[in-house]
C-alpha cells in the first residue's frame, strides 16, 4: 500500500516532450513539468520565439540548462516529428511523458463555406500529428518502459459552437482517439486528455478580445482560464498521483459546461 505521505507528484528522472510550447498553454505545461523535476523538450515552428522560451524556462530552474531542450519544427511534418523524438532520446536517453499540445484553427464560420484544405490541416495538426508523435515515442521508449500521454482537447469537442466547427470536430476526434489508445496501450502507458474552455492566450484572443468581462460573466467562476490552470491539471495527470486514471477527458472550464452552454 502506497503511503499517503509519499510525494507522487515528483517527476524527477523523467523526460517529457511538449509540442507547440513556445507560449501559452504549452509553455505553462513545460514550466509545470520542470518545476516537478522532469527534463523537458519543447517544440514550436518559430526558432527565435522557441529559443527565447527555452532561455526563460531554463532561467527559472537552478539546473535548467541541463533539463530544457528546444527543437524547432512543424508538428504536421513527419520528418520533423521523427527528428524531434530522436533528439529527445539523444539528449535525455528516455521519453516518459508526451503532451500533444500543438494545434491550429484556421477555419471559422459556417462549415458549408469552409475550405476543405484548411479543414484537412486542422485534423492533421490536431489529431494525426499527435498520433504520429505517440507512435514514435512508443517505438523509442514507451513501448518497452511505459509512460504517460496527455492530449490537449477542448470544451468545443463536447458542445457545438456554431463558429469553430472544424476545430471542434477535430478535438472531438482527439477525445475518441484518447480512449482508443488508453485501451490499446494499458497498462504500461496511460493516455488522457484535458478539455479547456476559453483560456487567456494569443491563440484564443478572437474568442474574448474586446468583451472579456462579458465572456467571463457566463462562467460560474466569473473569470477566463489561465494557462497555469491547465498546466497544473496536466502535471497531475502525468504523475504517479494519477496512476489509475486513463482514457479520461478532464474538463478544466470554470464550470461553463455545467451551465448548458459554451458562453
From TrEMBL:
Record PROSITE patterns: ADH_SHORT
Domain of life where this protein originates: Bacteria
One Pfam family, short name: adh_short_C2
InterPro entries: NAD(P)-bd_dom_sf (IPR036291), Sc_DH/Rdtase_CS (IPR020904), SDR_fam (IPR002347)
Protein family (similarity comment): Belongs to the short-chain dehydrogenases/reductases (SDR) family.
Protein name: SDR family oxidoreductase
Amino acid at each position: 500500500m502506497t503511503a499517503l505521505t509519499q510525494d507522487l507528484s515528483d517527476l524527477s528522472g523523467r523526460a517529457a516532450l511538449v509540442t507547440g510550447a513556445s507560449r501559452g498553454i504549452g509553455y505553462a505545461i513545460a514550466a509545470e513539468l520542470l518545476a516537478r523535476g522532469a527534463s523537458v523538450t519543447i517544440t514550436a515552428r518559430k526558432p527565435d520565439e522557441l529559443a527565447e522560451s527555452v532561455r526563460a524556462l531554463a532561467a527559472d530552474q537552478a539546473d535548467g540548462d541541463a533539463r530544457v531542450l528546444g527543437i524547432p519544427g512543424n508538428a504536421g511534418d513527419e520528418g520533423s516529428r521523427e527528428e524531434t523524438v530522436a533528439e529527445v532520446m539523444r539528449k535525455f536517453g528516455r521519453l516518459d511523458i508526451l503532451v500533444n499540445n500543438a494545434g491550429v484553427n484556421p477555419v471559422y464560420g459556417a462549415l458549408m463555406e469552409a475550405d476543405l484544405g484548411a479543414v484537412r490541416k486542422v485534423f492533421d495538426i490536431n489529431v494525426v500529428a499527435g498520433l504520429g508523435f505517440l507512435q514514435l515515442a512508443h517505438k523509442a521508449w514507451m513501448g518497452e518502459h511505459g509512460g504517460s500521454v496527455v492530449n490537449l482537447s477542448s470544451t468545443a469537442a463536447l458542445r457545438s459552437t456554431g463558429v469553430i466547427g472544424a476545430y471542434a470536430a477535430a478535438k472531438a476526434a482527439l477525445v475518441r482517439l484518447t480512449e482508443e489508445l488508453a485501451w490499446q496501450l494499458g497498462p504500461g502507458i496511460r493516455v488522457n486528455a484535458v478539455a479547456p474552455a476559453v483560456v487567456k492566450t494569443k491563440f484564443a484572443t478572437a474568442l474574448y478580445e474586446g468583451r472579456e468581462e462579458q465572456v467571463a460573466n457566463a462562467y460560474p467562476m466569473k473569470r477566463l482560464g489561465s494557462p497555469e490552470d491547465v498546466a497544473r491539471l496536466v502535471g497531475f495527470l502525468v504523475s504517479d498521483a494519477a496512476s489509475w486514471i486513463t482514457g479520461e477527458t478532464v474538463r478544466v472550464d470554470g464550470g461553463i459546461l455545467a451551465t448548458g452552454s459554451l458562453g
